Amino acid sequence: MLSQLRRIVQDVAQEPVLNNALAGLVSNVKNALKTECCSVYLADYEQQHFMLMATDGLNPEAVGQISIGFSEGLIGWVGQREEPINLAQAHLHPRFKVTPEVSEDRFSAFLGCPIIHHRKVLGVLTIQQGESRVFSEDEESFLVTLGVQLASVLVHAEMRQAASQNSKQQKSTGQLQGLPGAPGIAIGEGFVLEPSSDFDAISLKKVDDPEKELSRFYKAVKITKAEFNRLAERMAGHLPPDALAIFDVYHQLLDAASLGNEIEKQIHEGWCAKSALKRVVEKFARQFDDMDDPYLRERGTDIRDLGQRVLNHLLDTEQRHHKLPEKVVLVADNVTATMLAEIPRAQLVAIVSLKGSVNSHAAIMARALGIPAVMGLDELPLFHWQSKRLIVDGYRGQILVAPAEAIVAEYQALISEDAQLSARYQSEMHLNAQSACGAPFSLMVNAGLAIELESTQPSYTDGIGLYRTEFPFIMRNRFPTEAEQIELYKKVLASHPTKAVVMRTLDVGGDKALPYFSIIEENPFLGWRGIRLTLDHPEIFLVQIRAMLKANIGQGNLHILLPMISDLAEVDESLRLIKQATFELTDELAGTEIQLPKAKVGVMIEVPSIMYQLPELARKIDFCSVGTNDLTQYLLAVDRNNPRVAGLYDAMHPAVLRALHQMSLQAQGLQLPMSICGELAGEPAGVLILAAMGYDKFSMNSSNLAKIKWLLRRVNMSELQLLLPEILACQSPKQVRLQVQRFLDQKQLLNQLRA
Ligand code: PEP
Ligand code: MG
């Protein structure tokens, strides 16, 4: 049963044309369940009906012609009830609708099962039989399981269809819906960057030109063989001859008579070179995996390794082959800082990250750069995006593929409106950050995720409230040396010479990986991340602290910030190491004129546990900074990187807001300086609520700063204080947003603030 299910779903997933996939599906299900009829209907939300898309048993002429309204017949009923309906005599049921065109009068038994993705009914799968009987529990559970598995495959197929529409066919349903990652609208051309290759990320695709694919495959094999020769030569003196024999085995495997031959066959069948390689490597590797003999089982790993190398070279040639368009919409499975660095800033107009969610670091990077981003579209394979004209709407999380000219013109008008709004905010950038009634605010910038690319304006800000030091670590293929770090940190400290610069110690783990230090964990956001990792590796921590302290010589504006603190012992240990580094450096400087300025030390408040230890914390440190991105994820138990639960991730959740309010009051009582450096501070609604709670130090992406200053300058503290109880009484994030919108509307500010 399980293998049948798997095979049916795989067949659907591998067929590039949706109609063919569905035609195959209904026949396979009919055969597997030995029924007389299987059909699939897909929902069309614009037309409010289900369309018969494929059938094996009903009149084939009705396919694509017969639709059933959402509230009509048994199909509509399955959709409405969102559960299977199993009837021995369907035609006697009051909801039965006679549809002569489908010729179903010979069937009596009916089992219909909804196909649901993320709470949305995508379609209905039915089986029917002449004999009047209730389908068995096994049959019903088979269909339910199939429906669940099919859902994501079908979304994938529908998206593929939307993505392959050309401009003449484009209609409003051709939009792809993802998650808003960074606000703004851009029009450009899809440019796909694949990460260092991974077979899981390769989606299967058929192409028209097998000769071209063959020549790409041969080229990749040639480079791989040359690579093996080089490796074998280099290892010759270091490895015993039997170990070196592996390279001969690899050579042979790549030869025409073995894997090579199989791959060629697949390419002749129409698969692109990558797909052919993936299909063959997976097939053979699986065969070895299933063997009893441990030696032979290991050969599965060899085949995967070999395939991986060929794949790397295939991707290399492929990416070189695509010319960088003038306006790049960077599309990647997971957009990384390294990828951003590959695209000249002037050409990069938007980001589409198929994985990730609203507060993934890819989205934060996009906001830092001030370019729109859409996240979480991973049901659509990468290759569909290449060289397509795209409109990226980062406000709504939508993408339009190959849009018609009229649609492009509409979006172009929105882009100009945005530019006008932004100019309006910028025109007040030189003014003081204060409320309409004169209450001062400290507005700082978040920097570091892509420092070279960011456009910070030092003179109009109050410093750097969060410098994420991850970037220089991610961009290298080894840990940066102390000297390299000193050079960089000096520049950062000098960029705001008379103002505070808050430098956070390395916060990798979670969704930020170092290419040379892989951490594979089941639950990375609850795992070895931030301070946990660096305290386990004091050699990394100490080098970084030494570099920061040395860079601070002659500057004196360094504030050290510790990420992911969940326990007071971590604070003590960090302070001990900072003290140690300070002693070492003071020793080194003994006898010189050089003074080592004292750096302030603070803690990120982003793990809920530490919120309850503020009095103890206040005695140990100089300041703290609230990371609302992680605090939200940990308070709500919602992975900030997972698009499936993106709807639950919301910093406006009443629980998060109440926690922030209580903390503000407590910090004031303890006289503990507390700023906000999470994304909430850069959101208009967020900053108003925070200001109402008494926060007055905000650090945000430089692209939001002008808007936030402009907004704060238009509100009175007394008005915000009246708003606060209404906000704190809300029961849902939606209510909170509505309250703030009403407030902004009353002040006639709403239409001047998009997003
Ligand atoms: C946060 O968690 O709110 C934060 C500012 O840090 P990061 O987004 O880098 O985790
Ligand atoms: Mg954080």
Automatic annotation (TrEMBL):
Tagged with keyword Kinase: yes
EC number: 2.7.3.9
Subcellular location per the Swiss-Prot or TrEMBL entry: Cytoplasm
Keywords from the named record: Cytoplasm, Kinase, Magnesium, Metal-binding, Phosphotransferase system, Sugar transport, Transferase, Transport
UniProt xrefs under SMART domains: GAF (SM00065)
Domain GAF: from-to ranges: 17-164
Keyword check for Kinase: yes
Coiled coil regions, renumbered to chain: none
Protein name: phosphoenolpyruvate--protein phosphotransferase
